[in-house]
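Hi R.,

As promised on Friday, here is the backbone we talked about, encoded as structure tokens. Could you run it through your design pipeline when you get a chance and send me back a sequence?
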């Protein structure tokens, strides 16, 4: 059950200090592509999901390559 408090109570968590630093890193000379890489690909909070996507795509294309290479061995003689 959720703990209830008075309406004037402050939140019980502290904001993450990295977010304040990340907002300060906006470079006006940064290209849109490098900003996309920084915020969507290399961002620490999104990196585990991106690694899972890369692993799945690698396994998919690796399976296609394996079947094309050794597919005849899977057919009974």
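Update: got your reply. Pasting your designed sequence below so it's all in one thread:
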């Amino acid at each position: 059950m959720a703990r209830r408090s008075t309406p004037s109570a402050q939140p019980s968590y502290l904001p993450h200090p990295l977010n304040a630093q990340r907002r300060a890193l906006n470079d006006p000379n940064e290209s849109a592509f490098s900003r996309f890489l920084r915020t969507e690909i290399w961002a620490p909070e999104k990196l585990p999901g991106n690694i899972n996507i890369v692993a799945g795509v690698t396994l998919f294309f690796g399976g296609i390559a394996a079947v094309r290479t050794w597919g005849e061995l899977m057919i009974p003689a």
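One thing I noticed while checking it: The mean pLDDT is 83.

Thanks again,
M.
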